[in-house]
Amino acid sequence: MNSEDATTKLLLEVIERIGEKKKIKQGTVIVDNKSSANHFYVIINGIFKTVKEVNGQPCIICFTFTGDIDGDPLVFMDPPEPYYKLIAVVDSTIVLFDWHKLKSELGEEVFNKILNYYLLKYIQFLQARIVENIALNAEERYKLLVQQNPIQSLEIPLLDLAAYLGITPQSLSRIRATKT
């Protein structure tokens, strides 16, 4: 087992021990400006969308799927109020955990190692999203999403998926009708 696998395994073991498992109904907002920025979530099963208001309009900035860890990494800089909403796209199950409890459980050295690892992963994710949005058109981004999440991507409502891609539902229907 490499150190990355061992780190992930340790993190998941501790989260399972200190976290709170919750069933979330479709459409439920689990993060907004009234919730604690200290909580993060491991998605046991389900799909969530991250929605940020841009120029007064809701904008879907990403989807998270089974196995993902979601939350606001800016909490480590200066605990802000969340600037987005995290909404269940389908009925889902999560494990909710608090970073402060995780730090207490792991100790500062191990916690910092895990934190740095996941912040680097988050940066990689953001870089990939920027490149995708610059270099790929909506059809290519759709195909990439389906390739990366072949089963769960089909559960995302057409309106949400079209909004995420920045196209009309009719354009997305045309894309879906073509052979991939």
3D architecture notes:
With 180 residues, this protein is an alpha+beta fold. The protein has 6 helices and 8 strands; from the N terminus they run H-E-E-E-E-E-E-E-E-H-H-H-H-H. The strands form 2 sheets. It has a 4-stranded antiparallel sheet with strand order 1-8-3-6. A 4-stranded antiparallel sheet has the order 2-7-4-5. The termini are far apart. 21% of the residues are buried.
What's the end-to-end separation, in Å?
36 Å
Let me know the average pLDDT: 86
Helix and strand content put the structural class at alpha+beta
Number of strands: 8
Instruction: Give the overall shape, derived from the CA principal axes.
Output: globular
Largest sheet: 4 strands, antiparallel
